[in-house]
């Protein structure tokens, strides 16, 4: 049933540690399930997508973004007759390395950590080292490759990984416009007509056009790409979004405070390393990693709410009680 270009589970490059096969699930189905049941996945529900700690319940979080990427990716993979299970596993895991407060948190930790910090590198650390008390999830190489290469300049080794890479961009362009309109920052009339004339004049139309742009260009081909006309319009709309939303003073008005909060937590745990949870301390002694890396592992795993709560406990005075 699958395309000759699909990644078959029987041909997987396997896991780092041998695992007894499951009688009813392929290795990629097991990877999907391991991600779904992980603590890192559950924490995504309280991590920022674009709007930091939004007051409304309808704004996207990192979890709802992930679920939208999963849905779009599976639609494309099914149309192209690629491996849906592998596609789904990569889509669900692709943002596990994100920090609290979105990309603002990522930039803050990258500036603080001597070894640098990126969410795609951290995603691999989560699934290989940090989950399950330091044992990791022991995912297949294909899923881990998709996590690392989902970024714009990545080069996934599988077509399924390429599908997720493209659908991640489709998802955030579509839903970030929707959220920005809900917040009153953008309106349909403000979007450049040279791009909406190609992609459509509503969130639904644009999503449909971008999905078909991938399918029309990739069906029956040994590669996954987007038709040139749609690709150019998506690139232009993405550039517009960076200039008018992702660095917008309204959407990003609290970022400076969030970055200062993370810096305060980082400095505190560097000076009080014994207060790190046991699994992060063990990483230093067993794997010979630096305290700064252990601190970044701990902070990056926090939700927005937990990071703010820790800051209150450590730095704000409490009312005196008799």
Describe the protein in words.
There is one protein chain. This protein is mainly alpha-helical and 322 residues long. It folds into two domains: 23-246, Hypothetical protein af1432, CATH 1.10.3210.10; 255-315, no CATH class. It has 15 helices and no strands. It has helices spanning 27-36, 39-43, 62-80, 84-93, 102-112, 119-134, 141-148, 159-182, 193-199, 203-218, 228-246, 255-271, 278-287, 291-300, 304-315. Helix 3 runs parallel beside helix 10 and helix 4 (84-93) packs across helix 7. The longest helix has 24 residues, at 159-182. It is flat and about 70 Å long. 45% of the residues are buried. The model has no long low-confidence stretch (mean pLDDT 93).
The profile of the biggest β sheet is: none
Low-confidence stretches: none
CATH topology of the largest domain: Hypothetical protein af1432
Portion in helices? 55-70%
Output the structural class: mainly alpha
Using the coordinates above, name the CATH class of the largest domain. Answer: Mainly Alpha
Order of helices and strands: HHHHHHHHHHHHHHH
Structural domain count: 2
CATH architecture of the largest domain: Orthogonal Bundle
Average pLDDT level: 93
How far apart are the first and last residues' alpha carbons, in Å? 72 Å
SS strand fraction: under 5%
Shape: flat
> Looking at this structure, what is the CATH superfamily of the largest domain?
Hypothetical protein af1432
Rg to the nearest angstrom?
21 Å
By DSSP (H or I, 4+ residues per run), the number of helices equals: 15
């Amino acid at each position: 049933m699958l395309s000759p270009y699909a990644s078959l589970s029987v041909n997987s490059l396997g896991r780092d540690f041998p695992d007894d096969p499951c009688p009813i699930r392929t290795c990629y189905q097991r990877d999907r399930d391991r991600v779904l049941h992980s603590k890192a996945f559950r924490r995504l529900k309280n991590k920022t997508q674009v709007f930091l700690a939004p007051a409304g319940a309808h704004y996207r979080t990192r979890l709802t973004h992930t679920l939208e990427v999963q849905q779009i990716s599976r639609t494309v993979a099914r149309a192209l007759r690629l491996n849906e299970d592998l596609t789904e596993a990569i889509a669900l895991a692709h943002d596990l390395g994100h920090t609290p407060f979105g990309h603002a948190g990522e930039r803050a930790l990258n500036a603080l950590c001597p070894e640098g910090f990126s969410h795609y590198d951290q995603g691999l650390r989560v699934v290989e080292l940090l989950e399950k008390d330091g044992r990791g999830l022991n995912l297949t190489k294909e899923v881990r490759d998709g996590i690392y290469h989902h970024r714009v300049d990545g080069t996934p080794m599988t077509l399924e990984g390429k599908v997720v890479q493209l659908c991640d961009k489709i998802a955030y362009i579509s839903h970030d416009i929707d959220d920005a309109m809900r917040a009153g920052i953008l309106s349909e009339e403000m979007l450049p007509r040279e791009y909406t004339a190609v992609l459509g004049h509503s969130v639904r139309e644009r999503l449909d056009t971008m999905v078909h742009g991938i399918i029309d260009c990739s069906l029956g081909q040994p590669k996954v790409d987007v038709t040139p006309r749609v690709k150019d319009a998506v690139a232009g709309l993405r550039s517009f979004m960076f200039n008018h939303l992702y660095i917008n003073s309204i959407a990003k008005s609290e970022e400076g405070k969030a970055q200062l909060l993370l810096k305060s937590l980082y400095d505190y745990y560097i000076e009080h390393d014994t207060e790190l949870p046991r699994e992060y301390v063990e990483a230093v002694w067993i794997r010979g990693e630096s305290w700064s890396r252990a601190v970044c592992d701990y902070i990056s795993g926090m939700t927005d709410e937990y990071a703010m709560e820790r800051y209150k406990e450590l730095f704000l005075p409490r009312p005196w009680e008799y």
